[in-house]
Every structure is written in structure tokens, then in C-alpha cells.
């Protein structure tokens, strides 16, 4: 009797203890989820610019949300997201190329963003096409132009004032460009395909290949230096690499930049090709509200100025003006005409571009 009563009592006590434990755990879980939601954004970033640090610090100071950053290149980040699947801790993804952002979207690695702040701030041609239910997979946050640099003594500006002229037989043996399979060139080729159509784009690729001064090697800065050194007369580079040389503390860098001319191609036609650095929210983000808050912050005028200026880029957000002396020097202080195609078309053209590169044997 005593033992039975005791057992019942123990059972009751155990039951109560279990209930209390479950409740306590639930509170703890809720508490930590709420705390995490308030305090953390896990960022996978392909931006390799030290000036971004202060930007992230300012966000943390303003919001109390800490940023845990993982650095890798675009391809590395996309591969990692795929490998991690639903276990991925990633919340926000920053990539530095339009076609890679498109790839991430196409591979289902991002979740559609619904933010009036971002949609109002970023022009429609610089973000992903809205999904049927109105979400947007990624937003451009800064823009960079793919420009032509040239030997001012040996090449007339009128011989390099369009991308088409890179393939003109009169420029045979003069052109330097980094590997055709680098994302910056793939996106340029995707844009060229959008503007010219596939047959003309393939003929253009063949023409550029025929005009190469040497097999592609090095990055964009190496191409600018090769023009200054006389190894080639014409080269292709992202605008910020040129601006970086102009603003460098090293006199030899400034000398390189001053020695070459810079051309924003296609001012008389469809405009200079713009690529973007942009942001997305990971499909399995655990801190979704923080992630949106962080992207909205990056699109704000103050952050845009810092985000773009720090790497000598142009802001993606409407109405944000820069006082960057190197960019002013490059454009003569005037706005330049940039292409207006939806940047998502560049990514959508990648299968065609890959096939054309194979057919042409572009190095
Ligand atoms: Fe770069």
C-alpha cells in the first residue's frame, strides 16, 4: 500500500518534473531563438574589400545585430550552400557577379525577398525578375562598368569606343583580356549576346580571340599593367581596378593609370556593360528578419555611399551621389550611358555563352 502510494506519488512527481522540464526547454528554445533573431546575421561574402568592415561595424552599432562573416569567392559560396543544404547557417549572401547571383537563384539556394524598402531603392533592371508570387531573389547593391583601357599613343580613341571594335581586324594582335571563363567576362559575353543576338555574339567572340596579343593570364589589374608596359595596346577591365590604381599610394600604380586611356564603350549605342555586386537571403536562413534588415541597411543612402565608394563603385540605389575623385576623373565628371537590359538576362544567357566559348575555343 505504502509502496503503491509511493509509486503513484513518484509517478506524479516525475510527470510534473517532466512537464516542467519540457516547459523550461520550450522557454529556453524560444528565448534563444528570439535572442538569436535579435542579435546575429550569418553572412557569406565574396566581397574582398577591407573597406566593408566599417560598414558592418556601423550596422552592429546601430542595431545590436552582430555579423558573423565567412569569406569565399562566388563559386565557393554557391558550392558551400549546396553542400550544407538545410543545415546551412547562412542568412545573407553577398556575391560580386550578376551571373553567379542568377545561378544561385536558379539552383534554389535563395529565398524570395519581400521588401518595399529594397524594391523602392534598387532599380528594376538591377535586381532579379520577381517570382510569380512577387518575391525577388537578389538585389544589386553596387555597380561596376566593364571598360576598355588603351595605349593613348598607339591607339585612337575612336578605334576602341565600342565592344564591337575589340573584334575589328584593325585591332589584330593588340587585345589583352583575362580568361574568357572568368565570371566578369562571362557576364560581359552574356550582355553582348543579349544586345547582338547569338550569331553575331559568336562572330564577335571569334574576332576578339583572333585579336589577342597573348593568351589570357592574370586578373584585370594585370591587363591594365600590360598596356602600360607595352605588351598589348588594348585591354578590358572592371572600372574599380583602374580607379584603385589612380587612388593608390604607390607612385608606380598612379603612373600606370596615367599612362593609359580609359573608354566607356558603346556611348553611341546600347551603353557600357554594368555588372553588379549584390545580396540575397539564403533559402534556409534562420535569422530572416535580421537578414532583411541588413540588406535594407546596405541599400540606404549612407551605406550605399560607403559600400560603393570603398571599392570605387557606383551605388545601385537610386539618387545616391558620390564624390569619388577617381571615378570623376575616369568619366570626366559626367554621367556615362550604361546598358539598361535587365541584369538577370546576363545570367539567363550563360548556357548560350558556354556553348559559344566551346565552339570558338575562346581561351
Ligand atoms: Fe573584382
Structure description:
It is a single chain. With 363 residues, this protein is α/β, with parallel strands linked by helices. The chain has 2 domains: 40-142 and 275-322, D-Maltodextrin-Binding Protein, domain 2, CATH 3.40.190.10; 143-272 and 340-360, D-Maltodextrin-Binding Protein, domain 2 (3-Layer(aba) Sandwich). It has helices at residues 2-39, 52-63, 74-84, 98-106, 116-121, 183-196, 198-211, 220-228, 239-246, 251-259, 288-298, 301-310, 325-331, 343-348, 350-360; strands at 40-45, 66-71, 92-95, 138-151, 175-176, 234-238, 260-263, 274-281, 314-315. Strands 1, 2, 3, 4, 5, 6, 7, 8 and 9 form a 9-stranded mixed β-sheet that branches. Strand 1, helix 2 and strand 2 (66-71) form a beta-alpha-beta unit. Helix 6 (183-196) packs across helix 7 (198-211). The N and C termini lie far apart (90 Å). Mean pLDDT is 91; it is low at 1-36. It binds fe (iii) ion (FE). Residues 96, 238 line the site of fe (iii) ion (FE).
List keywords for this structure.
363 residues; alpha/beta; D-Maltodextrin-Binding Protein, domain 2; 2 domains; nine-stranded mixed β-sheet; 48% helix; globular; disordered N terminus; binds fe (iii) ion
Short description:
With 363 residues, the protein is of the alpha/beta class. Helix content is 48%, strand content 14%.
Amino acid at each position: 500500500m505504502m509502496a503503491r502510494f509511493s509509486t503513484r506519488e513518484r509517478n506524479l512527481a516525475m510527470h510534473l518534473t517532466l512537464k516542467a522540464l519540457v516547459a523550461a526547454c520550450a522557454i529556453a528554445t524560444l528565448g534563444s531563438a528570439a535572442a538569436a533573431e535579435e542579435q546575429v546575421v550569418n553572412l557569406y561574402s565574396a566581397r574582398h574589400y577591407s573597406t566593408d568592415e566599417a560598414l558592418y561595424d556601423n550596422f552592429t552599432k546601430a542595431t545590436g545585430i552582430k555579423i558573423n562573416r565567412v569569406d569565399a569567392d562566388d563559386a565557393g559560396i554557391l558550392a558551400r550552400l549546396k553542400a550544407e543544404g538545410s543545415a546551412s547557417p547562412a542568412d545573407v549572401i553577398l556575391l560580386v557577379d550578376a551571373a553567379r547571383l542568377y545561378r544561385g537563384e536558379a539552383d534554389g539556394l535563395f529565398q524570395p525577398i519581400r521588401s518595399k524598402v529594397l524594391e523602392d531603392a534598387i532599380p528594376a533592371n538591377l535586381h532579379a525578375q520577381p517570382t510569380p508570387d512577387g518575391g525577388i531573389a537578389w538585389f544589386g547593391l553596387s555597380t561596376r562598368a566593364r571598360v576598355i583601357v588603351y595605349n593613348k599613343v598607339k591607339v585612337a580613341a575612336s578605334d576602341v569606343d565600342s565592344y564591337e571594335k575589340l573584334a575589328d581586324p584593325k585591332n589584330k594582335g593588340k587585345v589583352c583580356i583575362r580568361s574568357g571563363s572568368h565570371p566578369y567576362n562571362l557576364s560581359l559575353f552574356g550582355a553582348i549576346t543579349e544586345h547582338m543576338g547569338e550569331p553575331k555574339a559568336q562572330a564577335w567572340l571569334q574576332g576578339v580571340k583572333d585579336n589577342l596579343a597573348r593568351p589570357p593570364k592574370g586578373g584585370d589589374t594585370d591587363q591594365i599593367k600590360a598596356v602600360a608596359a607595352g605588351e598589348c595596346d588594348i585591354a578590358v577591365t572592371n572600372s574599380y581596378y583602374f580607379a584603385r590604381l589612380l587612388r593608390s599610394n604607390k607612385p608606380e600604380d598612379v603612373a600606370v593609370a596615367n599612362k593609359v586611356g580609359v573608354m566607356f564603350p558603346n556611348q553611341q549605342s546600347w551603353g557600357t556593360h554594368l555588372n553588379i555586386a549584390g545580396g540575397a537571403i539564403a533559402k534556409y536562413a534562420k535569422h530572416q528578419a535580421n537578414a532583411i534588415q541588413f540588406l535594407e541597411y546596405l541599400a540606404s543612402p549612407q551605406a550605399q555611399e560607403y559600400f560603393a565608394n570603398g571599392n570605387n563603385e557606383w551605388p545601385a540605389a537610386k539618387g545616391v551621389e558620390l564624390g569619388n575623385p577617381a571615378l570623376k576623373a575616369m568619366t570626366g565628371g559626367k554621367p556615362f550611358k550604361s546598358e539598361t537590359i535587365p541584369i538577370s538576362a546576363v545570367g539567363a544567357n550563360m548556357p548560350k555563352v558556354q556553348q559559344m566559348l566551346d565552339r570558338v575555343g575562346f581561351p
